[in-house]
Structures
1.
Amino acid sequence: MSARHSHSLAAKIALRYLFSPKSHGAVNVISAVSVAGIAVATAAIVIVLSVFNGFADLAVSKLSKVDAHLTLVPAHGKVIPRADSLAAVISSIPEVAAAMPVLDEKGLAMVDENQIVATLRGIPEGYLATSGLDGVVIDGVDYVGDTLGLRCAIVSVGVALSTGARPGSSPSLRVFIPRRLGRVNPSSPWTAFRSDTLFTAGVYQTEQAEFDADMLMMPLPALRRMLDYNASEASSIGIWAAPGISRARGLWWPGEGGDD
C-alpha cells in the first residue's frame, strides 16, 4: 500500500470515528476535548510564530537605520589608519552600494546643568541617507554637518530627554571628551577635556533601546579634531551592499567562507 493511500485511509477512519454516534457519553467528551485541545494548540503556535516573525522584521528594519550591513573594525588598536582611502576602495566594488568611515567615542553631552554620558558618533556627509536614519527623525531636520558657522548634530530621543536638547533651542549642546594627547595640569581640571559646541538639528528614534538611549551623531571632522586624530582615521567602516546582493549572488566577505 502506498503512503498516499495509507494517509487517506487513516484520515477516513479518524473522521468516521469522530463523527459517528457513540454508545458511551465519555467517548464523546474525550473526542470533543481532544479536538478542542489540538485546535487551541495549533492556533497558539500560529499566533506565536506570527508575532515573532513580526518582531524579527521590526528589529531588522530598525537596526538597519543605525548599523551598516557589514562593519569593518581594526584587528588591533582603536582606529583604522587611512580609513577614508580604504572606504573609497571598498565603495568601488560593484556589489557595494557605499562604504563610509565612522568614529565612535564616549563623551559627556550637556545643556545647562543637564547632562548624560553619550556615545558620540562622527559620521561623514551622506551617512544619514545611506543608512536610512533620515527616515526615523521625529523632530527637526535630518542634517549633520557644518552650515552658517554652526556644527549641526542629531541626537537620540534619550539624549534629548536627558539634556533638554531640542531643534532650534538655546542654549546649544556642548560635548566633552577626555584629552587623548598632551599633559594635564592638575590645578586646572578642565584642561583634561576637549570640548565643542553643537547645534541640535534633529532628534531621532529607532525604537531600539541600545540606540535610542545615549547616541549623538556629529560631523566626523569635528570629532576627529576633538580626539586629535588625523583626517583619515576612523574606528570602523560601515559597508552597505547594493540592492539585491546576498550570499546567493556570490558576495562573500573574509571570514564567511572560502579563502580569506
Note: The two ends are 53 Å apart (CA to CA).
2.
Amino acid sequence: MTILRPISSEGYKLFHEGTLALSQVEHNGMRIDTKYLGRTIKKLDKKIAQLSNEMKESAECRRVYKTWRKRYGVKTNLGSHEQLGRVLFDDLKIKGKGTTKSGRWKSDKDALEDIDLPFVKKYLEAEKLKKARSTYLGGILREVDSNGFLHPVFNLHTVATYRSSVSDPNTQNIPIRDTYVASLVRPCFISRWRNGQIGEADFSGVEVRVSACYNKDPQLLTYIKDKTTDMHRDMGMECYKLSKSQMTKEIRYCAKNRLVFPFFYGDWFFSCAQSLWDAIDRMKLKTAQGTPLKEYLRKKGITKLGNLDPDKEPLPRTFLYHIKQVEKRFWGERFKVYDKWKVDWWEAFLKKGYFDTYTGFRCGGLLDRKQVSNYPI
C-alpha cells in the first residue's frame, strides 16, 4: 500500500484548495451539443454495421471470415481478439508478434496493424469506431443531464501521487492523437455562451521542467533554457542517423514519444527500438528530402530490426543494436547527472522508506524503482 500525506502547510493548502477548485469545475459542468451527439452516434452505428457486413460478405474478406466460421461455428465472435489471433496465426499461418504470458497470440492493435489484409484493416477500423461510440460518445450520453450539461467527477485523493483523476466520464482522456476519432468526439463540447468559444491551455514541457527541478541535469537545463536547442530533434537525428536538414516533424514526434519519454520513465532500448522501427512503416516516415527511412538506414548499414529475443545480445548492423548504443549514450553521456540522480534517489528511499516532494508531500510504502523516480514528477 502506498502512503502519501502532506508534511507542510503548503502541501495541505495545495491539496485543499485544489480539491475545492475541482469541485467548482464539477459543479459548473461542461455544455454538450446533444443534437450533434445523437447524430454522430447514429452515424457510427451505421458505419460499424457496414464494416461488419463487409468483413462477412465482401470478396476480399470472405476467406478470413470463412476460416473463422469453420473454426468457431456458432461461437464466432467478431469482437474477440483471441479468436482472431488463432484464425490469423494458427489457421492462416500469418507471422505473428509472439504470445502473451498465458500462451495466447498477441492480437491487440499493435500486433495487428502491420498485417496487410483487407479483413484486418476493416476489423481495426470497426474496433476504433466501436471505442469512439461506446467509450467516448456513449460515456458522454450516459452522463449528460437534462439541461445538456456534463458534470464529470474530479478527484485528487484517489491517485497515489495526488495527480488529478476524472470519472463519469473520464474527460481527461478525450482523444486527440487519432485525428478522425478526435473530429467525432471533440465537437460535442461547446461554449455555454452564444457565440462563445472554448480555449485550450497547455504547459510547455511541464514534466521535463519539473524533472529538471529534481535532478538538475545541466544538459536538460540547457535544453529548457536555450531556445535554439531541441532535445527531441537531436534524439530523432541520433535514432535514425540523420542530419538536422533531414529531420521532419513526424520523425521528431516519434523520437519524443517512442524514445525520450519512455527512457525518462524507465523503459529500455529493446521495446523502444521495436516501436521506432514499426513507426517507419506505420507513419510512412521519410527524410525531409523524401527518402523512405528504411531505404536511408540501409545505406547507413542498418538492414533489419534484429532478433526479438530480450535474453540475447542484439547483433551489429541491426536497429536493436543501434538503439542500444543510443541508450548507452543517452544515460552515460547526454543525461548522466539525471541518471545518477535516479540511482541516488532510489538508494535514499531504500534507507528511509519514503521520499519528500517539492510540493510538500511525503510518499512511502511498497514502491518499485520506476515509481520512486516518477512519482515526484
Note: The mean pLDDT is 92.
3.
Amino acid sequence: MQTFNPFLPSNEYIPDAEPYIYNDRVYIYGSHDRFGAPIFCMNDYVCWSAPLQDLSDWRYEGVIYRKKQDPINKFGLRLLFAPDMAAGLDGRYYLFYTVDFAGRMSVAVSDTPVGPFVFHGYIRFANGRIWGSRSGDELPFDPAVLVDDDGRIYLYSGFATKVPRLLSRFHSLQNSGCVVLELESDMLTVKTGPKLLFPRQGNHPDHDFQNHEFFEASSIRKIDGRYVFVYSSRHNHELCYAISDSPDSGFRFGGTLVDVGDLFLHGNEDETKAANYLGNTHGGMVELNGQWYIFYHRHTNRHSYSRQACAQPLIRTPDGGFQQAEITSCGLNGEPLQGRGRFEARIACNLWSREGTARYDRRFPKKRHPYLTQNGKDESPDAVQYITNMRDGSVAGFKYFLIEKLERICVTYAGCCDGVMQISAFAHFERIAAQIKVKTQGLSMNAFSAIQFDDGVTALYFRYLGKGALDFYSFELI
C-alpha cells in the first residue's frame, strides 16, 4: 500500500503532531482542529497509530482526553493547545498541554499510550505555587518534554509574542522566548528553572539565530547523544532546529528542517513565490525503520484553523545534522508514488494562483486564490476533500511519481469553468505533456487526453487556463 501527504483520512484535522514509538507502533499526539472552524484546536485530543512495517495503515485510537477534564475548563469552552507526550520513570504515560492562554501547564496521565488519560495536576514549584500564577512568570505554552537517559526530566515551553489581552487582565506574564525547567519524577514539581534558553526576536538573540529566532512550537529529541531542539521561527511557516551537547544550554542553530512553502530551500525567501500557501506549523521528529522524519502540518479552507498532519523524510548531513526537506505528496511512503491509478487532488503539495501565494492571515485575498476544502461536515465519513477556486493561471503540483509508459490521463473536475487543464513535469510549464478541454456549469465531469511523459521520477503540475473557477477532485494515470 502507498501512503500520501496528508497521511491521515481527508476528514481528519490533526496539527502540531508529535510522533513517538511504543510497542512497534508509531503514535501521533497533536491538537485537534475542526473543519471550517473560526479558531484553532476546537476538538478533544485524539490519537492515531500505525505499525512500523506499514506506515499507510493508520488506526484511529479514539478520544484520549476531553477538554472538560481539566478543572479550569469544566464547561469545555476553552481550547486544548498543542500537547507533548512522555513515558515516565514509573512506566506510565504523561500528556503535557495548556488550556489556550490560561497561564497553566497541565499534565494528564494514563497506563497506556492511548489512554484514557486522567487529569494529574499543574506544573508547580516545590512550595506548591502553580507556575504561571504570579506576575512576572513566563507564560506556559507549547510544552516539549524529555526524559533523559539518566532519568532527569526536562520541560521546555515558550511563546514569543505579546500575552493576549484577556490573559493580561489577570496576570502580567512574560513572553521572553523558550524556557527550560527540570522536573521531579512526579512529572509535576519544578526542580530547577525556568531558565531562558531561546530568546525571542529583539531579546538579545544569539547571532547564529538571526532571521530564524524562536517563536513557538517547542519539540525535543535526543539523537546520537546530542540534544536536538525543533521549533517554529519568527517566520511562523518553518520548523528549524538547534543542537547541543547539553539539554539546558549551549544550543547552536542547525538550520531549517521544513517550510510549508519550501522557502529557504533554494535561497528563495519571497513569500509571494512560495511553493504553497503559508501559515503556522508545528511538529516533531522520529526515526522510523532507520529513516528520520519531520512531522508538520498544512492548511486548508483559506485559514490556519483546519490543519492536517504531514511528514517528510530527512537527509543527514556529515556533521550529524539535517538538510531541509522538500514538501512532497509522498512523505511517509519512503519512495515516489507509482505512476498508475487514481489520485485525489487533495494530496497536492504545491498550490498557487497566477499572482503567486500569500500568507493565511486577516489580509488574505480569498477570492483570487485556490484552496483545499471539503463538501461534508467535520469528521463526516462521506466528506470529500478537493481543490476549489482554481482560476485562470492557478497551478496544483504533486511530487513525486515513478512514471513508466504513461499513455493517458483523466481529470475529474466540477465548478463553473470553460478552459483547458495543462499538465507538465515543470513548475513553469516549459513543456506541456497534455492539454485537456474542461467545461462545466456545476456538474462533475471526467475529461481524458493522451499524454507524453518521459519514464522516470517526476513531478506533475496541473494548470487551469480559462474563464470562471474550476474544482479539481482527482486525476488518473493510465
Note: The chain has a mean pLDDT of 95.
